[in-house]
Design brief:
The protein is mainly α. Helix content is about 85%, strand content about 0%. It is built from 2 helices and no strands.
Amino acid sequence: MNNDSLVIYIIAVLCLGGVLILMRDRLEPKLRRPLALAAVVMIAIAFVLVVIAMLNAS
């Protein structure tokens, strides 16, 4: 996997998580849970990709 793409993905996912945390009071209750679940899944995928990249680097 291209490291540049991985870095961009991680930054985008962390920014999305940060925005959701900061704006949670302004989000509609219907959207709050699905957006939070999507952010958690994407952050977990980013963590797995970082681990895979570290294992492939050695």
